[in-house]
Amino acid sequence: MKRTLLNIALFLVLAAPLPCLAQSAPTFTDVAPIIRTKCSSCHKPGQTGPFSLLTYEDVAKRISFVRDVVQRRYMPPWKADNNYVHFANDRSLTEKERSLLLQWIDNKAPRGDGPDTARLKEASIPGTSYYRKPDLVLKAKDSFHVTGDNFERYIIFKIPFELKDSFNVEAIEFYCNNKKLIHHANYAIHSVPDPAIDIEHTDSLINLTEDDRRKFDQYQPYRKTITYYGGWIPGTSYESYPKDIGWVMPQRGVILLTVHFAPTAVDENVMVGANLFFKKTPIQRKVKVVSFGSGGIGEKQIDPPFYIKAGKVQKFTLEVSNPSDDQSLLYVWPHMHLIGKEFLAYAIPPGGGDTIRLVHIPRWDFRWQEIYRFPKLVKIPRGSVIHLECTYDNTADNPFNPNNPPRNIFSYGDMRTTDEMMTLMMIFMPYKPGDENIQL
């Protein structure tokens, strides 16, 4: 009997669940990779963030603020609808990342002694958001003096270049030492191989806001061909390409860099340009860029005509067919201004196949934009129809409306912040079988 009771007791002990081992509380070492990938690319010197988040000290002294914006899901900013399309460069926090950050903060944000406690080195390379230093930086001839008179300006900077050879481009990004002053920037890279065409002794910049616009005619000899077109808007980072995809930087030519300076009350000197990153592997497939909507293909086909009435919430649509061969998309770049409310883009293949989702921004916010990169190449068959459905809120209830009272808005050509745009740019290349499996 005693042996039986002993066996029962032993069985109960062995069958009892083991106590859970207490997990160690997270330290900065655990959360630093999240801050590095989701925060520091904007929060460092020269970028759009108002302060740096590069060290433990940077984060610790703003810990209450960090907790608040993470708790409310206000930061990191990401406006695309992940249920519509999930993009590869998504910088929003996953629930696991958000929970870990809040747990660390609520545990009094311990520093720890791991390798990331001093500085987030991967995110702190001066002048770039890319993971390494640029191979070539092409800058304007001089800094541009922005007068603090609360007046916006459009400037075209001519940046000539003569290199020892052409180069295969892995990535490109807009360079600026103070992006807080920039509304947007676009760069067109033109090859000028003819040595008889002078690329040096034309004006280094043209002020489209104040100068005679006929001055732009001196740049026409450069614009016979275009190698690449890209740009920057608040919230964006860089454009990069997989192993054998990209474009070739010509040996000789000019960059025509159009910069829209936002109104400011303080005088500033700003340097602008482009960072280029090269790769040794050959470019087997060259990318191209196309623009739909206002300022691009189908501008006159926007329905109804792109005239936004004061006091109205209006929806505009555009349908443009793809008459060329099958294409593979890498990036999409939606763009609106201050009274934008919702942006939706998709493609319908010929024969009524499944809708190809491109991008959906359900609550447009001019302050946070992005060039969205697909996880894998997206096929757009020949004959597909690109659809844009864009809604604008030109009422007094829109807190971002720049006009009080609201006024009618009719936009074309060069757009001021107080004007509007309805634009989708797509970075693409000719389709090849199996592209759908190529990860970006």
Molecular shape: globular
Regions with little confidence, pLDDT below 50 for 5+ residues: 8-22
Largest β-sheet summary: 6 strands, mixed
Number of strands: 23
Instruction: Give the termini distance in whole angstroms.
Output: 71 Å
- The average pLDDT score comes to 88
The fraction of residues in strands falls at 25-35%
Radius of gyration: 26 Å
Query: SSE string, helix = H, strand = E?
Result: HHHHHEEEEEEEEEEEEEEEEEEEEEEE
Q: Please count the helical segments.
A: 5
- In helices, the fraction of residues equals 10-25%
Structural class designation: mainly beta
Summarize the structure.
This protein is mostly beta strands and 440 residues long.
Q: Could you give the topology of this structure?
A:
Elements: H1 2-15, H2 28-38, H3 56-60, H4 63-71, H5 95-106, E1 136-139, E2 144-146, E3 153-162, E4 167-176, E5 182-191, E6 205-207, E7 228-232, E8 239-240, E9 245-249, E10 252-261, E11 268-270, E12 272-278, E13 285-286, E14 288-293, E15 307-308, E16 312-321, E17 327-335, E18 340-348, E19 356-361, E20 372-380, E21 385-394, E22 409-410, E23 423-430
Helix pairs in contact: 2-5, 4-5
